Amino acid sequence: MPDLLSTYESVATADLYGHPLxxxxxxxxxxxxxxxxxxxxxPLAPAGGGPLADCLGTLLHHRFGEGSPGPLLxxxxx
Length: 78
Prior knowledge:
Blueprint: H1 4-17, H2 23-33, E1 34-35, E2 38-39, H3 51-63
């Protein structure tokens, strides 16, 4: 099962190395993790994942939306 952090890291790495992505595939995932209660870490999670999940979900949403703002920024979380 894909999760939000792994998806973000995969997209950021693909952006860094110029690897092509299937935008429709990533958009489908992002649409499944964004809910009315906030962004969840996986499509099966029962509730919002908190501020970090909301931030990553929003960045991915904008990355694959109309007028893409460009590559994702690399993150260091630990």
